[in-house]
Amino acid sequence: MRTSWKSEEEIMQIEGVLKNVKEQILKQPQTTAQFAPKIEQYLADEDMRCTFLAARVIHDLTRQCPGAMAILSGEPSFWHKVVEALDKCLNDRVAKEMARTIYNLTSKDGQEGKTWCRMFGVQTDGLRVLIKMLNATVDHVVFCSITSIHNILVKLEIKDEEGNPTSNAPIFSKFRDIQGPAVVARKVSEKILQTRAQNENRSQIDQKMIQSMAKFVIICVDILRCVSFRNDATKKALLHEHVPEMLVELLYRPVALPSNGKLGLYITRLLKVLSVCKLNKPKIVECGGITAIGFVITNCMGDPAVMKKVLLHALLTLRNLSDEANRQPKQADNNSILDAMTKIIASNVDEGIKTMAVGILYNLVCNNCVNKAYLVNNTNSIDLLLHIIGSAKDTRGKSTDLLELATSTLKILTNDMTKTPQDPAKRAQAQIRSSKERFHVIYYLFCEKTPYFDNEKSSTISSCSSLIYSKEASSMIKISYPSSKQS
Fold first, then answer.
1. Buried b (16+ CB within 10 A) or exposed e, 163-174
2. Which InterPro entries does this entry report, sorted A to Z (predicted)?
3. How many CB atoms lie within 10 A of CB 40?
4. 48-64 vs 76-88: helix axis angle to the nearest 10?
5. Is 161 strand, coil or helix?
């Protein structure tokens, strides 16, 4: 039997004392250090009711008295007691008050926010306790804890303009050492399954819950991106926790509304990090990652505000994955991504984006007759590639990467490797020879020796030489074409 259990009268007296302490601090913030020991005393009390009353006072002060918080920001020992109380807490109400307190402080902007993140991430054992709180039974405690973890990691170590973390930062090492990535991965997977199960049992989908869940997933995914960036051990741990499969499924069956571009952006950014890992790359492709990212690109192209943010990350991910796609014959159904790349090439995006799109097409059709046939038979890729090549005659200087990739891709599409009537190369060749405009794009480059090709890149011209030197082309060559001498 607990001898420390207090009577209702004692609890009321303690509540009065703490109320008076709060009022004194609100009136005179400079007295905070004087009254802090009294708060600590009740915070450490074995009676959870006393702990709750003290935790509530601290939470109220974080919202109502910046002056008091400025003083307490220099008192690690006080916050060590707060973290210790949260660690020992078995009461949901108490955990909620303290989790909200840490959330409020770590969410502050600027240098003040960094100071509090350093307090809970470095100067106290807050990071470990927050990870522990992810297993709380109260959703609000879980959300405050995961957001506080994200605040600590991001505000302390995300420094460059692209939002890439310092991979070997001490705070990340600490997070990894206490198994943070695995806990977060398991928690987000658990929450996704829980949310879907709840919605399947309801006649109407709870949109508020769905949107809240989407926010939770975004925070978790960004944490995983930060700690796995340039860290193979963490990437391997995420593979063990089935994170690639979870991410791909989220792109197919989003937790939030399908139009939630922010969710797609954060998932794609994590996939980009994992796609350079030799262990994760095959798994992403195997579970349908290529097609899933194709859906993301297709959807975002209808929303200019989202497209600019998502497209670059999606294309970089596909570039990393596209060579693996050809090593897995069973994953040959890449129609959605082939369509998406074709749309990008036809759009008005900048040359860098277009170059990546053509490079992805090149990887997907190389040694893959299924993709090659789809591209030739179901898209206008031949004309798009010819347009890129034809536009080169308006440039000066060296051949661009875009031009190199365009001619190399066209060479694959027109190369009759199998020597059979069913090979799509026959159709591609016939399409080019079907009009003098198409044919003379190639003929002009090959015969005119245009100045924008240097000797080192003569392979660009020779890539399509088979189209010039063939029986079928003989009649096309006779067609006059304005030479550079006439201009």
1. ebbbeebebbeb
2. ARM-like (IPR011989), ARM-type_fold (IPR016024), Beta-catenin (IPR013284)
3. 19
4. 130
5. coil
Query: Which of 405, 344, 291 shows the shortest CA–CA distance to 413?
Result: 405
When mean pLDDT is compared over 176-190, 298-312, 331-345, the highest value belongs to 176-190
Cβ(272)–Cβ(320) below 8 Å: yes
Quick one: tokens of 264?
A: 């797609």
Q: In whole angstroms, how far apart are CA 107 and each of 71, 156, 221, 400, 440?
A: 18, 12, 18, 46, 62
**61: pLDDT strictly greater than 80:** yes
Q: pTM for the complete prediction?
A: 0.84
29-59: pLDDT as tens digits = 999 999 999 999 999 998 999 999 999 999 9
**What sign results for the dihedral spanned by CA atoms 123, 124, 128, 130?**
negative
Nearest Cα to Cα of residue 410 among 395, 425, 393: 425
Are 361 and 355 spatial neighbours (Cβ–Cβ below 8 Å)? no
Residue 181 pLDDT = 97
Residues 291-315 have pLDDT tens digits of 888 888 877 776 666 677 788 888 8
Report the alpha-carbon distance of residue 222 to residue 435 in Å, rounded. Answer: 51
- Which residues make Cβ contacts (< 8 Å) with residue 175, sequence separation at least 6? 127, 149, 153, 181, 227
